[in-house]
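Dear support,

We are seeing what looks like truncated structure output for some complexes. This example has two components. We would appreciate it if you could run it in full and send us the complete token output so we can diff it against ours.
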Amino acid sequence: SQTIHQWPATLVQPVGSPLSLECTVEGTSNPNLYWYRQAAGRGLQLLFYSVGIGQISSEVPQNLSASRPQDRQFILSSKKLLLSDSGFYLCASSGGRGANEQFFGPGTRLTVL
Amino acid sequence: AQKVTQAQTEISVVEKEDVTLDCVYETRDTTYYLFWYKQPPSGELVFLIRRNSFDEQNEISGRYSWNFQKSTSSFNFTITASQVVDSAVYFCALSLYQFYFGTGTSLTVIP
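Here is the complete output from our reference environment:
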């Protein structure tokens, strides 16, 4: 099975500061990678997904961006954080189209003050 | 359009009671996959089960069982003899080329 690493685990940042969250995957190659945000209401909002290096699809236009510089590395970034960016960010990995379960990382809890 | 509905926002049961978490999905595709995930207080989502649209056979795994009914587009999850460790948020998901998650059901098992 796959192992997803995320860091940092928690982060407190001021409004207007930049952001970089990193996700790396072990145990698979050429995975589909995903960034989700989970706000206080518990639902999972898909932010970005990637089917390969340099290929990023954005589901929700917003203050964030994603990049995939390597096969098993997925980065979530922002140039200037907003209060509304606070939340729990989860990285996920899966193999192939829809059939395979997504494996989730431990998440990063971001608080923007 | 694809959609997953978990109408139960929060459920509380006393330990050893049985509890069923409902999941209703919408899709026009004939090939799809359904999943259940558990999110304990630590936050990480844990995979529980996958079902493909052509397999309506119910499944039992220990105290967990799943009832998939295409006729009602439902994929319900039952925990038998609940335990405090079952307290978590449970997500149902539909997968085609990407995942569609329900909003989750928060289960609290009271000792």
